[in-house]
Protein 1
Amino acid sequence: MYTGHCQCGGVRFQIAGELAPIQICHCSQCRRAQGTPFATNIPVQESAYTLLSGAELLKSFESSPGKRRVFCSHCGSPLYSTKEGLPGVLRIRAGLLNEPLASRPGVNFYTGSKANWWAIHDDVPQFEAGITSAPVK
């Protein structure tokens, strides 16, 4: 069981079960949404996610057709995103989780559009675009 919350603590949740590998996304939308060179996401089945408090604080934004980004309307913390093409999956922001994670990064996505000021110095597979592209490393 994992627990997490937003910066102000108004939104609290838990995740049952083990976590999938962390997905690192370098696309320009994730950079803007996080204010960082990449987003660290963990795909979680909706059935494993329980919102404990803060439903009234949840707001969402459709950043591209079929993709919604959910955040806390009080503190602005990005919480997760959903895609119509991946029904039933929440992409939880890894930095929200309270417990130490056994899960480690498993893939770098959209490295073709990564921030020019951020170098990737790991041996995690890199994809210039999404999973449909060939790894560059």
Protein 2
Amino acid sequence: MTAVHALIHLHDFDDGSADFKLIGVFSTPERAARAQAVTAELPGFRESPDGFLVVPLELDHGPAAEGLPMDLHLLFRILEEPGHGEEVVILGAFRSEEQAHAAASAYHEGPPEAELEVSPVDVDERTWTDGFFTWYDEE
């Protein structure tokens, strides 16, 4: 089974909520580590270096001769939790948008109020290339 490696960053806030950022999907753990090293130097990321995770994802079933495509579609489950932000879970990586939507149609687990989203990604390219800053609203 072919696998890809999603590099994500979770930023925890003082109120217990968290923010999810997909940095990119990479063909090898080494490429994910190189992307992490570059991203860790950006504002926001350098202040929370422990937030990086590399998540291996099995690619959907396809002919082994196809190899690893350079573009994939990720299926996400997103649940808005009042007072805690969004809970984001990557459910799978697919070779085509049609396969990702078919998987979404067949998915019946998790909270019914969760939204499913299909997003295209380019393999071995960072999707998040800027830093970030945290704005605290003072009430």
Protein 3
Amino acid sequence: MRPDMPADHTTEAERLLRTAARYPEDHEPLLLQAAAHLELAGARDRATGLYDTLLAASPDRPHLVKALKAANLWEYGHEAEAHAIIDGLRTAAPVDPAPWEIVAETLESHDELEAAHDSFTTALNLLLTPGEDVPYPTHALLIGRHRVRRMLGLDHDDWDGLADRVNPASVTLDELHDPKRLWSLGSDNPAELQAEITRLRAELGSYRTALSRPFPVAVLHWPEPELRELLTAYPSLTAEYPSHEAHLTQLETSLRELAATGTPNLGIVTGTVPSYEAFAASEATTPSDPNLLPQYATTLAARGRATPWPPSRNATCWCGSPKAYRDCHGTASS
């Protein structure tokens, strides 16, 4: 049986739903994955039901859930409801790139190119500051905007130049996004067909790279109350965490060092003492063992608990403070 057949997606969705019931603290990422498989299986009504369940439970990323719900609704005939959700999201202006990407690509897939272009552009103006590093989660926004602008016949601008620089494929974006490629697929000229196959392979290769990335290289973050409880229960871990402030500084430093070495797909996972103790019990070891900490972080990341790092400059800082990242741990001196 081919892995993309609906029966396989249904089976995987059911497995994820069982896992979510077993690990309720991880239900949000697991239900999102299950909903995606249900969509691929054609069970879009069940997928929408999962999105509604998540929204009723006050999800960590409500804008993302709403964007996914809108995209799914539109695919099975509820265009007006999908449009209403999308309009609400664009008004809310989230500082998370994922909902913007889904909204813009949904509009694009339904030939609303001007609205898609506006969504891509609004997101980039909100999330990026010219001249600063481009966080990985915003790469898709840049590339998607470039694609739509090519279909609209618009000239290159500064954002398009930035998209060219973050493009991971060996083929240029102008080639990948050339509207004439659609005509090439119907050509009787072997040279044209071979050139198109080469471009498609390059594009597919970049997509496969994105989809096959392992879970993030994740660094463990303890909120202050959790760290206080952890050190009270297991004082031997004080050597790892001399203070909460030092912990936050070290976390940001570690991530910047990893980024400087070219490590991709970095993330942050947030620990809790009950979860950590349960993990230690599952590993038949003591929570006071410092060697358990990175294993715990990896396990949380594998279960979908990682938040991508770095956040956009205008997003709330990962540490939990109300400040924007650029004014908190995103400052040059952090």
Protein 4
Amino acid sequence: MISSLLIALAAGAASAVMFASIISGALVSIFLFYLAPLPLMVACLGWGPMTATIGGIAAATSLGLMFGMGYLAIFAITIALPAWWLGHLALLGRAVEAPASVTGPAEPKSEWYPIGRILLWIAVFASITTMAALLTLGTDSETILGTLKRSFGRIMAGRTEGDSDTIANTIAMIAPSAASVVAIITLTLNLWLAGRITSTSGRLKRPWPDLHTLALPPMTLVVLCVAIALIFLGGIVGIFAQIVSATLLMAYAFTGFATLHALTTGLGSRTIVLSMVYAMTLVLGWPILVAACLGLADAFFGFRQRLGERRPPHRWRDKASLQHLTTSNTNKEI
């Protein structure tokens, strides 16, 4: 109990320091700010949600006492709450009945919360935090876009050639979508890193999921279509719909990469192909749109499911299944 409390306080202190480092204005502080949920996620996955809860409350309280209630609220909504809830979902599981085996009693199995639904929750948090950040600038679209335009105009003053007002206006228009994309990427990266750290240390209580099977719930497509339609209403509703659309498209880009991994299984040049795709995505950026289209196409047509049906069964059987098949054949011969 004492060790868990100390770990909770250490995780909370690390997360609070990383969050507050943005005040310094240093370039490295941006990197630390985006990694602020990581200590709490590690504490949640390795020592349980209660540890992350204690650490989050301690961190938020400390920030509130030092910098004001505004920092407390921002930290609680954008850092502590997502870290605790995503870690809780990752550890959520239930026992399921295993089929009877001819070699003996069946081993108990656990069914874990699907990673596709966790990704959807990440998209929800990314959208909410981006909307909350915009609402601090104003409560209507004109005020929000005007504030963003003036801020980007001051940054680019004297640094760009041509019409800086037009450039600032364009950046202000795409800033909400870009912020939501950055939010979902950083939250996903933090959860993946936390899982890797706890898995390496041996404290992860669930088996590492098969990321090749990552798939969003079917209703996500309906929500995406509605959000895209609401963009044309304009105003604050249009901005919020733009944020939701960009976040969900980024989530489908993740499923597109999972589809690419599944489709290239068994290819001799698989490593080269995947390395080139990821390198182009990091350098150019636009291949992420192709990945989103692939993810949407897989959601419509079920490429991975059809691939699993066409491939020989032995490729998809694990070692336990092969041993069970061998034992059954031997018993039949006897």
